[in-house]
């Protein structure tokens, strides 16, 4: 850590205020070029603490920048991890109020729900599959609090990996009923297919993203509790959306989920 508690708290307040007031800001690494990963995750944790103190509840965890398409789109090279609170949840087929977001984009993802806790280090695909209750389609709505959606890794970690909204739905599948590497995904916007991919786009197998999250938390003495919903990361590049758009994600063998921007 290079930043003191007061600075961490000030940065958390700055980023959360941008989210709540729907305005962007410059990268925090512009002000603190020497900040390290622990600083970045400490800012992210301080934002969560602010929300929990106001009565919000944790609704899930996420891995991001887990596919080549996403890393290339954002110009970065390694996965990042974050969280979603209950107010980020959109019901299956529900509405997102676009005026509450800065410059939203949508991502096709596979969501995991655990029946057993996972703890790293040493967590691997097999442990993840054994601990998974079911998988299902998930659309993540990301909304970077940084100007023009441009950031470096530490800035985006501090900004809770651009998390904003998400929907899950469709047909939950057991992990032995689908091949998560070859499973095909089609993302449609207003009835037009706009992005396609297969599960293997995420680190070769989406369960790897969950294992990496468990290992990341394990290094901090934390685990992923049983029952946790986890988004494993965008399979394709993220697609910009605006008010009036309807977005639907089809995942082979797992049905569809959708949301509408109003
Ligand atoms: C960072 C969050 C990336 C994903 O699924 O790759 C992410 C961003 O691109 O703004 O959630
Ligand atoms: Mg995502």
TrEMBL record:
GO terms for molecular function: 2-oxopent-4-enoate hydratase activity. Residues 77-258 form the Fumarylacetoacetase-like C-terminal domain. It holds the Pfam family FAA_hydrolase. InterPro entries: 4-oxalocrotonate_decarboxylase, Fumarylacetoacetase-like_C, Fumarylacetoacetase_C_sf, Hydratase-Decarb/MhpD_sf. Keywords: Lyase. This is 4-oxalocrotonate decarboxylase. GO terms for cellular component: cytoplasm.
